[in-house]
């Protein structure tokens, strides 16, 4: 993520210092950037001169003090471990220029909590790039409780200057927007297997052909990585028991190192030779009704609106760009019938507990 963010920033004209704790990591990062730019040049997307210009605007540095000299914006992309984030920001806060803003490229960790490791919460913000940053258009921007309007405005302008599309998560809620929809859905798909007896292929086919996802939810989970999903689940559930109903299979797969495509096995098995897609079909989709799965996703979307973290338009934009949805979520809900969605949630709440209680927003729709 770090080298991808450096590349897109330099490609937009910014002077970038790329910092890591050892030279070998920086060498690897620069090699990946060169590979990416060579590929773009070979396809005619950039010229040889533009490639050289981008590379010349990225300066790899190990020494933290040197790396931070004159910095306006510091973007951190260290692993999703709160103690590590806090340690890094304590070091950054002591060494960075007083006016520099800090932006954490976290997908789930609370911005307000990380900002407490610094003396500048008003200049601290979340900036969640999607992977890979060179290709994905969406960036979630998440102000913490102490973030100033000026820092939020500056961050939105920076994201737009990269040619990206920003969505603003107005409150620092667990999962922000995209992961608040995606992570719980992986668990709900596991619950659906238990509750209905449907196969993974049937559920995935229904998600793809019935709900307009680019791939099945199990397939998407394998593509994302069970390590990412498990860590996000733990962080989100720790802070809000109402956001996700954890299924034990996710933790079991993580513990067994069945991480998805990156390990060769997740929900499905993969070979090393080439990128494989799971064989899904409309015939398989007929074997599972995705009503309850859609209802649970929509319930989390409705929560974001009810709690002032987002609005329907921004949620649809995030789902389209972050999850690749072809059909707007709330349009799908209207097609299924809002009464059926609420009925499904009420039935699930009666059978499986208050976690599924319908959000008050549905009463207004």
From TrEMBL:
The keyword RNA-binding does not apply. Its EC number is 1.1.1.35, 4.2.1.17. Residues 1-172 form the 3-hydroxyacyl-CoA dehydrogenase NAD binding domain. SUPFAM superfamilies: 6-phosphogluconate dehydrogenase C-terminal domain-like, NAD(P)-binding Rossmann-fold domains. GO terms for biological process: fatty acid metabolic process. One of its GO terms (molecular function) is (3S)-3-hydroxyacyl-CoA dehydrogenase (NAD+) activity. It holds the Pfam family 3HCDH_N. Residues 175-270, 294-364 form the 3-hydroxyacyl-CoA dehydrogenase C-terminal domain. The keyword Lyase applies. Keywords: Lyase, Oxidoreductase. This is 3-hydroxyacyl-CoA dehydrogenase/enoyl-CoA hydratase. It comes from Cenarchaeum symbiosum (strain A).
